[in-house]
Design goal:
Mean pLDDT: 77
CATH architecture of the largest domain: Beta Barrel
Oligomer: single chain
Structural class: alpha+beta
CATH class of the largest domain: Mainly Beta
Low-confidence stretches: 1-51, 388-392
Shape: globular
Strand content: 25-35%
């Protein structure tokens, strides 16, 4: 089933935000350190900023490592040339019907081209970019600033963060050194380098407007650097560098009402990007850490109840049975205030930091329990593969057309936390609604949680699949859903 743009990316409930704005591009991810495989590679020497005269030096030193990425994708579709000359005859088509005509048409191929940017981070040709830049590409061409051209090969992609790694066959290539994005300060000067609208080697100047931007509804993992440096389509995957010529972010998205720059751009912090790259290069996939808790932000009222001086930390609403958190002694009602000695400001920050931690590492977790500090040692496990995605999507099965217009996924602790569901809620979450379907007409929305189907409980996708099979073709479906912690009955007529 083809789902429209209302598809729900579980863990990113925001969806539409910032009034009528449009996000162009996209991105994020988690990470630990990745070292360049070629230690002897020529690198960019740090350049100290001395007034405005320092900017040309930084630009000259960093621009050669930012590349133009062009991709080609071959798309096949029906509606091409007829397989027989008789199909050109209107009388023939009228007699046999258009369906017969389409069935015997030769598929038509078209080539789709797109442009983006990337950053060389190793002298032997590893390049970090956005996953959406190389998504479904059949051919990748990489153009350097010195006009050398290479064929790129995808090493790995992480759609949850929109990070991808590609490789070109080169030696002694210009590179950018990774900077420490955690040291980045609001108000600091930064340079955005890329290829907007296909204009090679374009550099713009701005400041860091904010750090730690999350809950934007762009990707599942978000901790963006916000900048007012001009970023436009084609900048995706390009470099955000500091005044020392260090790579501190990968440009990924803009807020815009027009599709062009409006002074609000977002970049993935370098510490996150290089961690994802590290995992993709070493493991072929992204390995993320896992505690096994449902968490929520601490507001002023909760802070008062839990004896906090201010609204900060991550409140544990539930603990997964058998998880590292349960084994380590974390309990529902604990407020996690420090992780590995670092303060936890909110639930989003905790989620990212846990994801970045190496699997198997023992870490000290400080919680407030009954207004008293408690220190616990937790061994980080590997995040289950369906932790943030909710597993496989399931459509309504059987003859019923009432349930043919949407898909559902199992609830996970992470999803329940994002939806602020009451503890113990069982059901399936709507992950997508087809445009024009009976489900859409009935008002079903992505993020709704189905708990009953025709007055029978729905605890998981197996229940949903079994109950949907029992519906007749013209039979209506009565759903009991949870939306914003309110229960509603919704009737879907075929």
């Amino acid at each position: 089933m083809s789902l429209d743009r209302r598809s729900f990316r579980v863990g990113v409930l925001a969806g539409v935000f910032l009034l009528s704005g449009v996000l162009v591009g996209v991105l994020f991810s988690a990470g630990s350190g990745w070292m360049s495989p070629a230690a002897s590679a020529p690198s960019v020497s740090p350049v100290a900023l001395a007034g405005s005269n320092g900017f040309p030096a930084v630009a000259k030193a960093t621009m050669p490592a930012v590349v133009n990425i062009s991709t080609t994708r071959v798309v096949k579709s029906q509606g091409g040339h007829p397989a027989s000359p008789f199909m050109d005859d209107p009388m023939f088509r009228q007699f046999f019907g258009e369906q017969f005509n389409r069935q015997f048409q030769i598929p038509r191929e078209r080539r789709e081209n797109s442009l983006g940017s990337g950053v060389i981070v190793s002298a032997d040709g590893y390049i970090v970019t956005n996953a959406h830049v190389v998504d479904k590409a059949d051919e990748i061409k990489v153009l350097l600033s010195d006009k050398r051209e290479f064929t790129g090969k995808v090493v790995g992609t992480d759609p949850k963060s929109d990070i991808a790694v590609i490789k070109i066959s080169g030696k002694e290539l210009p590179i950018l050194n990774w900077g420490d994005s955690e040291k980045l300060e609001v108000g600091e000067y930064v340079l955005a380098i890329g290829n907007p609208f296909g204009l090679n080697s374009t550099i713009t100047l701005g400041i860091v407007s904010a750090v730690g931007r999350a809950n934007m509804g762009i990707e599942q993992y978000e901790n963006f650097i916000q900048t007012d440096a001009a970023i436009n389509p084609g900048n995706s995957g390009g470099a955000l560098v500091n005044t020392r010529g260090e790579l501190i972010g990968i440009n990924t998205a803009i807020f815009s009402r027009t599709g062009g720059n409006m002074g609000i751009g977002f970049a993935i912090p370098s510490n996150m990007a290089k961690g994802v790259m590290d995992s993709l290069v070493k493991h072929g996939k992204v390995v993320r850490g896992y505690l096994g808790v449902s968490i929520q932000d601490v507001n002023a009222k909760i802070a008062k109840q839990f004896g906090l001086d201010k609204a900060q930390g991550a409140l544990v609403s539930d603990v997964v049975s058998g998880s590292p958190a349960e084994q380590g002694g974390i309990k529902s009602g604990d407020v996690i205030v420090r992780l590995d000695g670092k303060a936890i400001e909110n639930s989003t920050l905790l989620r990212h930091r846990v994801a970045e931690m190496p699997v198997g590492q023992s870490v000290e977790v400080e919680v407030l329990r009954d207004k008293k500090p408690v220190k616990l040692n937790i061994k980080i496990a590997e995040q289950p593969k369906d932790m943030t995605a909710g597993g496989e999507s399931v459509k309504g099965e059987g003859k019923s057309s009432a349930l043919a217009g949407f898909e559902v996924q199992n609830l996970t602790p992470d999803i329940s936390g994002k939806l602020n569901l009451a503890r113990g809620t069982q059901g399936v979450v709507v992950s997508g609604v087809e445009s024009g379907s009976a489900a859409e007409e009935a008002g079903i929305q992505p993020g709704d949680v189905v708990v009953e189907l025709n007055r029978k409980p729905v605890r998981n996708t197996d229940d949903f699949r079994r109950l949907s099979k029992s519906l007749g073709k013209d039979e209506s479906a009565l759903l009991l859903i949870v939306r914003q912690n309110r229960k509603l009955f919704v009737a879907i007529n075929p």
